[in-house]
Amino acid sequence: MMMNDQDSLVIAGVKLQSRMLLGTGRFPSPHVLQQALTASGAEVVTFAVRRVNLEEVEDDSVLQHLSGRHYTFLPNTSGANNAEEAVRIAKLARAAGLGSWIKVEISANARTLLPDPIETLRATEQLVKEGFDVLPYTSDDPILCKRLEEAGAVAVMPGGSPIGSGLGIMNPYNLGLIIEEANVPIIVDAGIGSAADAAQAMELGASAVLLNSPVAKAKDPVAMALAMKLAIEAGRLSYLAGRIPKKRYASASSAPEDSLFASPAKGAL
Amino acid sequence: MADSTSKKLDFQLYVITGTNYHPGRSMIDVIEQALIGGADIVQLRDKTASKQDIRENAHKLRQLTRRYGVPLIINDHIDIALEAEADGVHLGQDDLSLAEARRLLGPDRIIGISTHSIEQGLAAQAGGADYIGVGPVYPTGTKPGRAAVTTSYVQEAAEQIRIPFVAIGGITLGNVDTVIAAGASRVCAVSEIVGADDPAAVCRAFKARLHAAAPQRSEVQADDFAGTGVIVNGVAQRTTARTVWELICQHRLEDRRVVVELDGEIVVREEWSCTPIHEGAAVELVHFVGGG
């Protein structure tokens, strides 16, 4: 079997056994978040940087729910409208002392939340210069993904479809090209709706999948976290095992010879 | 360019350097302590050092006072004031004329004049001074041999001078209430502050006395007591916090993993307690929330 310990994923020198990166937003409660994290087996967690609500006495920070476990932290730059704002958020995140990974996320359109490709590339260039380990969330454009890799991204994260849409992988052809061309891990980030989508991403050869909404907003987030984990493992295994080529017509599973009802061979006459 | 705070002159506690009062301690450290304690204008005065030393000190003090957002005034040396981008100069009665100083410094920089009688005070006001020193109120070691003008000149100044005036000369925590009672709303001290073991504590005590007296004077000043006007997470507020650490404590965030940005620059936790909060500061207090 090819799925073994050697099939670990390495990003910026960090060896990961799990190929699921899990977002921490929109869970029904901190308790559900913790259970889902456990069920998912995720080793990388994402979160956002926001102003402290000074009116609120309660600590609504997400980190308090993650203490006592070992995670690699991947803060995002959501809320940034351009490269400068993303760099500013990245620096704030790094100042918290949780490592130097940063997910560049610069949305240019409020309705689609699709990433601004130009600002994303600029931010990636600047943050690499500043010594960050940069994982840009980007559109699924093969050339852009290559440019991000060349800019020094430690992994590139094309979206399957818009954030939180659950539309799955809208352009498997592009995604396949991106993966074929890549020399860094390609992580499908955004748009996953169900376990089938996650498995599809992995079968296309993605190195990992980053999810949040399909787990957090599922009827049973903990069960869905487990479903995603199994799907990602299944998809990865399927990819490594090597699928059969697609054919237009059937190809029988058993040889037709010696069928009980086959016509007798000519030589018997 | 001098800082934009130049002409506002809303100071209350004026501190002047006096290295002979703190042997073994650096002038910058002592003045920083004074600033932490609430001194809100600084004058570099050194009658004995070489011009090169004064120039170097002027540059250091400029950096320090910028961090704290307070004006820097240079005694006598207009050229150094210009070169070090100080906010202005302070001149004595025997120094360069006010008109000549104004010509050299331009309209935007502060010019302060030492005066020892109401006649001199009115003349400086008419001549375009931005503030005057009124003193020495008491006999002082920094101006040996000069007769004290006593609080009677302070009283005259309070009645007749319309530009800011600062009472100076031998003022201590022991006599400052008398000076304030005579009509001073701004005081200057040298040895009492820079010669103290804890200049910050002395400055805080001075400010408390000045504050305690001020409400009777005007509503505008009363508003100042409520603290420093700052913008925290986009919301304007007044705070009595003097440092980032105090601001964090006021919001009860000291035990939380919060990142602080002050005027666009991150302030690391180790520096919270020594980073001052100045008027108009833009503070961002951020943390991590759920996100994908």
Automatic annotation (TrEMBL), chain A:
UniProt keyword Transferase present: yes
Coiled coil regions, renumbered to chain: none
SUPFAM superfamilies: ThiG-like (SSF110399)
Alphabetic keyword roster: Cytoplasm, Schiff base, Thiamine biosynthesis, Transferase
Annotated catalysed reactions: [ThiS sulfur-carrier protein]-C-terminal-Gly-aminoethanethioate + 2-iminoacetate + 1-deoxy-D-xylulose 5-phosphate = [ThiS sulfur-carrier protein]-C-terminal Gly-Gly + 2-[(2R,5Z)-2-carboxy-4-methylthiazol-5(2H)-ylidene]ethyl phosphate + 2 H2O + H(+)
Active site positions, chain numbering: 103 (schiff-base intermediate with dxp)
EC number of this enzyme: 2.8.1.10
Keyword Transferase among record annotations: yes
Entry GO MF terms: thiazole synthase activity
Domain of life: Bacteria
First-level EC class: transferase
Cellular-component GO terms for this entry: cytoplasm
Annotated Pfam families: ThiG
Residue numbers binding 1-deoxy-D-xylulose 5-phosphate: 164, 190-191, 212-213
Gene Ontology biological process: thiamine diphosphate biosynthetic process
Localization per record: Cytoplasm
Domain Thiazole synthase ThiG: 11-254
Listed pathway(s): Cofactor biosynthesis; thiamine diphosphate biosynthesis
Family per similarity comment: Belongs to the ThiG family.
Self-association state and partner proteins as the record states: Homotetramer. Forms heterodimers with either ThiH or ThiS.
Role, per record: Catalyzes the rearrangement of 1-deoxy-D-xylulose 5-phosphate (DXP) to produce the thiazole phosphate moiety of thiamine. Sulfur is provided by the thiocarboxylate moiety of the carrier protein ThiS. In vitro, sulfur can be provided by H(2)S.
Name of the protein: Thiazole synthase
Gene name of this polypeptide: thiG
TrEMBL record, chain B:
An annotated Gene Ontology molecular function: thiamine-phosphate diphosphorylase activity
Enzyme Commission number(s) of this protein: 2.5.1.3
UniProt xrefs under Gene3D superfamilies: 3.10.20.30, Aldolase class I
Database matches in InterPro entries: Aldolase_TIM, Beta-grasp_dom_sf, Mopterin_synth/thiamin_S_b, Thi_S, ThiamineP_synth_sf, ThiamineP_synth_TenI, ThiS/MoaD-like, TMP_synthase
Listed pathway(s): Cofactor biosynthesis; thiamine diphosphate biosynthesis; thiamine phosphate from 4-amino-2-methyl-5-diphosphomethylpyrimidine and 4-methyl-5-(2-phosphoethyl)-thiazole: step 1/1
Pfam hit, one: TMP-TENI
Catalytic reaction annotation: 2-(2-carboxy-4-methylthiazol-5-yl)ethyl phosphate + 4-amino-2-methyl-5-(diphosphooxymethyl)pyrimidine + 2 H(+) = thiamine phosphate + CO2 + diphosphate; 2-[(2R,5Z)-2-carboxy-4-methylthiazol-5(2H)-ylidene]ethyl phosphate + 4-amino-2-methyl-5-(diphosphooxymethyl)pyrimidine + 2 H(+) = thiamine phosphate + CO2 + diphosphate; 4-methyl-5-(2-phosphooxyethyl)-thiazole + 4-amino-2-methyl-5-(diphosphooxymethyl)pyrimidine + H(+) = thiamine phosphate + diphosphate
Binding residues for Mg(2+): 76, 95
Listed cofactors: Mg(2+)
Residue runs in coiled coils: none
Sites where the protein binds 4-amino-2-methyl-5-(diphosphooxymethyl)pyrimidine: 43-47, 75, 114, 143
Broadest EC class assigned to this enzyme: transferase
Signal sequence annotation: none
Binding residues for 2-[(2R,5Z)-2-carboxy-4-methylthiazol-5(2H)-ylidene]ethyl phosphate: 140-142, 170, 190-191
The UniProt record lists the keyword Transferase: yes
GO cellular component: cytoplasm
Thiamine phosphate synthase/TenI domain mapped to chain residues: 13-193
Cofactor binding note: Binds 1 Mg(2+) ion per subunit.
Key words of the record: Magnesium, Metal-binding, Thiamine biosynthesis, Transferase
GO BP: thiamine biosynthetic process; thiamine diphosphate biosynthetic process
KW Transferase (keyword) present: yes
Similarity annotation: Belongs to the thiamine-phosphate synthase family.
Name this polypeptide is given: Thiamine-phosphate synthase
Organism, as annotated: Paenibacillus cellulosilyticus
